[in-house]
């Protein structure tokens, strides 16, 4: 072989040898010079660099499971309209970042109209959990035909004159009635026992590194809250009178060792208006599905106070939990930082540090004059 050709083959051999050595010893070089990469460069369309996705090996690999290795039969539930999508995604994103990316509980979204494809797509973008979208039956949502519309209209007009919040709104009353007695009956909810109620435009301030549903399940809790306060008297003028009529008629349904002292300062003669703020609830739906509460809700519903007054689901749920559960079964989630305008619960002391909370501890509704937490605490003294 001619000498010049020997040098050519020698140089080629050295280059090929170096290529293989570098391919095995330097991962980045091997990836950059692999046949698949070269092929992609040749066949891929020309695009700006930022449009080329990063390789998978840049990302942290997820290997997160429940530390207990088990989950409760539970879901997150939200009542929302299509127009709420920005507030919905904000709330879901926060819940995912603070908690559910570790536990992957499913979501149920309920609406009195069909959800749009845009709504569904945007929600599914921010969670890897299973998501269900449900349509509320019309007879569960709309004002019943047996309501005296003339009487209801007069009541709304009077509330508007007196500047009662949502006093003139029929849809708000529909929502309160639905949340009080129907959401847990929806076909999508039948597969679950526990729920965490979330609303659009709320904030979660702290990391939640445990499973609240398992706390409920293992400790036999049936109702959990973060904020409690007094109800507006103008919205419930005859609610307690109606409740007393029910308990007089059905004393056998009232649970011994209940939370009566939270809702009444005189053994049940009057209602002190304390209630759990139901825009945050973690609860056992068997409480609502049981005989006592179902009869209770039907009795209230037949009275018409959801429309002749403006009974909210917060006092109705609170009264139901207080009467039909033991006081020890009602749980204050002290370590879950939460805000629904205009009030917030910000964990204090070690709970604030452990949860890496970003809320200001001084901005905490718990000890404000309008809070009922002190009455909850006194039940256990």
From TrEMBL:
One GO molecular function term of this record is:
alpha-1,2-mannosyltransferase activity
Sorted alphabetically, the keyword list is: Transferase
GO annotation, biological process: cell wall mannoprotein biosynthetic process; protein N-linked glycosylation
* Stored InterPro entries: Glyco_trans_15, Nucleotide-diphossugar_trans
Gene Ontology cellular-component terms listed: Golgi apparatus; membrane
Recorded coiled-coil stretches: none
Signal peptide positions on this chain: none
Q: Name one Pfam family in it.
A: Glyco_transf_15
Catalytic site residues?
A: 281 (nucleophile)
Q: Which family does it belong to?
A: Belongs to the glycosyltransferase 15 family.
Q: What is this protein called?
A: Glycosyltransferase family 15 protein
Specify the species.
Candolleomyces eurysporus
